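Hey,
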Amino acid sequence: MAERFYLYLSISPDLRAERETLFQMIAHLPINVGFVIKTTPGGNEIPALDVLQRANSHIFILGGDIQAPMGIEWQVARGIGKQHNRSQLFVKDIGHTLAAQAFLHHVEETWIHYKEPSELQNIIQPQIVEQVLDGQNRFGLTVAEIERLRDLQEKLKNSSPTPAEAISGKLSAGGVIFAPGRDEPTGGVLVNKTSKQAGKR
């Protein structure tokens, strides 16, 4: 059975546009692969650390402020060594609270700066495409899907991609984009790439 791609977004609460942009980008990849996406929860919710621990990709995005449990998420990622291979840290070029400034100073890693959500997408999309291609056998890609991803990869190398179109439905708290006919996780979000409509299960 084909594996799913696990993505964990540690993201500041003020970065709603960035979160939606990345969800839409992944939903519109020209492949039939299941993605499990989890983000930093709000309120008193518990983070999905099990997904973080098994994540194919961990993206940490700091906005104007940092909020619990982002610090815990980073500690877990650092503890399992993801900052050396699967974690990337981004920081938005805006004013930061004292707490965010302290975190930036404390985490002595390479921070990638960006200004707009589309700029963030332009950096992350080629990396996700490359990761999926690297695991093409595990993710059960067909020959046609591999060709489409390689075409997209070449296009991204030669031009700045246009931000993904919006689809109806939200994944604002994280969820599952699954592959129809390939897996059927409960509580997921089915994305129909033809009609670009999403319905919650």
